[in-house]
Amino acid sequence: MTETTDSLPLPGSLVETTPRRRSSWGWLRTLWRSKPAVLGLSFLLLLVIGALFAPAIAPYDPNAQDFEFLEAPSLAHLLGTDDLGRDLFSRIVFGARISLFVGVSTVLLSSVIGVFLGLLAGYYGGWIDNIIMRYIDLQWAFPNFIIAVYLVAVFGTGLENVIIAVTLAFLDDFARVVRGMVLSIREREYVLSARALGASDARILWRHILPNATAPVIVQATVSVSYAILAEAGLSFLGLGVKPSTPTWGLILSDSRTFISRGWWLAVFPGLAITLTVLSINFLGDALRDIFDVREYEQEEGGH
User: Fold this and answer.
1) Which residue, 249, 262, 295, 297, has most beta carbons within 10 Å?
2) Alpha-carbon dihedral of residues 127, 131, 132, 134, nearest 10 degrees?
3) Which long-range contacts (CB under 8 A, 24 or more apart) does 81-84 make?
4) Where residue 248 sits, what CATH number does that domain have?
5) How many angstroms separate the CA atoms of 171 and 223, rounded?
6) 275 within domain boundaries
7) pLDDT in tens, 212-222
């Protein structure tokens, strides 16, 4: 009976399946040299800390209607109050929880599903590739936000349904990126050698192809977090997001439309929070794109 590579060690020249890259800490040094990335990462760290410790940081209950209506920013209320007498700073701090949770959770789910579909389509090709990519092409024909609006209309409002809708709307980006990488990687010498030695498809995909396709996935995931945050804010602004009692940046912006002429702070501060968050994530994504540049990645693999 023929033994497979699951039981036999590969020859020394085939053991290394990941291309030689810079040292493990080299990417941190490159990241540190990018001032926009450092600024973005610093703001995101503050945002994460604020979201995690929101009950300790927020001075008031975000839903407590205990104060004067439309009170301008002051020492008692750093960002003022809204039309129902709720402290705006407290609502924005608690709103960061929802935005980050939706952004991270949807990207994790969409990346897992999209990577799986991309691996199958790129590795097996044929009818499997045709079925998967025709669906991806159909989804690609519509803007992600339009797809999310449609899915929320089908599933209904609520945090869980928003996460499902945004996840399904963004998985096509990951599927396309991974499929393109797999089409290139599956013809490399180390993959062909592993297949010749009898390695199973699952082992080849998990041990040889997926590790070499992670760089563009990381970059895509970073950028997609900002898109997911914008999608959640847009859905909430349209009244298709979470429950009205839940403090989110999109809902705060939506509530400000009627009173913006009397309380400019109602629109400025939540809008600024969304803008700074998205810019910070994009700065970090640009730096990661430079570090894990796909073209550079291909060149470094060329001599393997």
Assistant:
1) 249
2) 130
3) 82/252, 82/255, 82/256, 82/259, 82/263, 82/266, 83/255, 83/258, 83/259, 83/263, 83/266
4) 1.10.3720.10
5) 13
6) yes
7) 888 888 888 98
